[in-house]
Every structure is written in structure tokens, then in C-alpha cells.
Amino acid sequence: GSASQQELKKAKGNTPELAVAMGQLQTYHHKFALAVEAKNHQLANFYLHEVEAAADGIKENIPSYEGYDIRKFMKIMFDSDVEPLETALANKNWDKVRQKTIDLTNSCNSCHNATAHGFVKITPGFDNNPFNQDFSVSE
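-> C-alpha cells emitted (139 positions)
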């Protein structure tokens, strides 16, 4: 009865909220896109690393949510798009980096659709800087 309800409530209290973790991932994704837009290789590398760290944190700390295997979905949809993005960035092939960023964004939305969250539609975020930050390369 009430003991198991208390345990459930306690367990839920210790579980990170997926929306908060995804919001952090989205912020790093957007900052990455703005660094790409500015062709700032150092900053883009930094934010791509943060994108990957945020995604790894979600897979590790929130492996399932509302009955969905979040870890599995992210491994299939997210991870497969990160490696080609890393390669394009390492080669400073900015056109390809932009395309691979769009591919990654599309995978985010495909995953949202597959997990009954299709109403959460992510955009690449190029040319849309709401941050109090200059993404240009220092001369």
C-alpha cells in the first residue's frame, strides 16, 4: 500500500527529469549549430563534445521513460548521426557539417515521433541566436 507508494515517489524524486536533460542537450545542439554557422572550429568542437556528453548522460541516467527505451532509441537514431558529423567537422567541411547537423536534428525529431513526443519539433538553429554570446572566431 502506502509504503510502496512512498518508495515509488522517492525513486521518482531521484530520477532526473527527461525534459530537463533534453533541454540541456538542445541548448548545446543549438550553440553547436551557431558555432558551425560562424565557422568557428574550436567552438564547434567544444559544443559537439558537450552535445555528446549530454546525450551520454541521458542514456546513462534516464535509460527509459514512460515505457520507452530511451537509451536504445538514442543509440539507434542519435549515435549513428554523430560520427559522420565528427568526421565532417574534423575535416572542416562546413557544407557537410551543416548537412550532418540537419540530419542529426531530423533524427531528434524522428525519435520524438517514435516516442509519442512528435509535438516537440527541433530545428537546426542556424541564423537564430537567442544567447548572449558571440560565436565568431577571434581574430
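Residues 41-61 form the longest helix (21 residues).
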